[in-house]
What we know:
The two termini are 27 Å apart. A hairpin with a 2-residue loop joins strand 17 and strand 18. This protein has one domain (54-372): TIM Barrel. Helix 4 (162-174) crosses helix 7 (214-230) and helix 13 (342-351) packs across helix 14 (358-372). It is α/β, with parallel strands linked by helices. The chain is globular and about 70 Å long. Helices cover 32% and strands 23% of the residues. Strands 1, 2, 3, 4, 5, 16, 17, 18 and 19 form a nine-stranded mixed β-sheet that branches. Strands 6-9-10-11-12-13-14-15 form an eight-stranded parallel β-sheet, with helices on both faces. A two-stranded antiparallel sheet has the order 7-8. Residues 58, 60, 314 line the site of zinc ion.
Amino acid sequence: xxxxxxxxxxxxxxHIVEADxxxxxxxINRIDSCIEISNIPILDAKGAYVLPAGxxxxxxxxxxTANGLSADDFETGSKAALAGGTTTIIDFITPTKGQxxxxxxxxxxxxxxxxYCDFAFHMSIIEWRESxxxxxxxxxxxFGITSFKTYLAYQKTIGISFVTxxxxxxxxxxxxxxxxxxxxxxxxxxxxxxxxxxLNQIDLNFHPKxxxxxxEYQAVDKIIELVRKTNCKTYIVHVSTAESLNKIKQAQxxxxxxxxxxxxxxxxxxxxxxxxxxxxALGFMMSPPLRSEENRKGIENAIIQGTVSTLGTDHCPFTLxxxxxxxxxxxxxxxxxxxxxRLSLFYSRFVHTKKLLTTDxxxxxxSNPAQFFRLPQKGEIKVDYDADLIIWKEQSITIKDQLLYSxxxxxxxxxxxxxxxxxxxxxxxxxxxxxxxLEDTLPLGHYLYRK
Length: 451
Ligand SMILES: [Zn+2]
């Protein structure tokens, strides 16, 4: 299928150029100052930015938890992503104890039904055994999984120790793979939570109190030591404190291969949300928790200064009913949605306010995730790359006044005013979203084999 986009402001990695762009067979075929071809559909993008479509490196769809499945499966989650201008998502495989990584991969792949985004997985390493390095190598070679997720929180279930983390990092370094880390001191948090519950301190505001900011940055300190020792490419997910980012910035000055992801919730909200009425506060129960206003500003500044390399969402919404069932703060399923709003929230806070450029938006929401996670032919407007594109429009609108696709009845961003949103979304050369809604029939996404 062919499509000619005329007169758009194409957001290339280093600059913006006003040009025409020809799409053929789902790929970007030609970029030129003026392309004239008859008999193909033409889209006039005069005055509008044309960006590489979003790549969300951190989503959890159809996540199985003690409180049941998360609210969005691959169908509703990918629709929400597309409607927000994100055409590629990276989800997770979490093996059970003792399960071979390849078996876990097969099982997770069988759970993907009607996914309209292209997708890939990070493989979680939840324990050590002698065969793990070989299993990791097989993940890379057989299934194109080049990134491995580890958790330092959740010690009683999927969390690992720093000793195991070091082994994973050595294995990953030998395989030239990326290790991604949920950085929280799990044992310390478990102790604080048990103490609080023992004292009947069960209200929601004990969630942030039992995960104080030092539980994140102390773990970051130890991770930096391990990066120095192993030189493994390391990516810290959902960084939520200013001090963690200070430490990462220092490590980057030493040229250590350490990178930070943050998420819109950490530059949008602060911990005051936990004092809202219970039904509202429940929506904000996530780990790491929302932090002080000082931390929120710190995240914003670190994004402006370039310490944060990517923006993910950690999209993992639950229904209000699932969250309401909890008898204390520790029982509330953790997570919130956001995949439909990531680009709008970034644009409104950073680009509309002229703190960052449109090229920075492309970098954090698309090109950097593509580069870090080795997504072939994605993340840039370049000849022969996938024609995954968005046409952007300045528009002042409240989030809840858009057509929303998440299946959760909670949207923590509902009352946020945004200043820009996608006008048209093109995936593999096909228009999948326009006039404020998704097309009735959508092409299925593909599993991305990474190299
Ligand atoms: Zn996550």
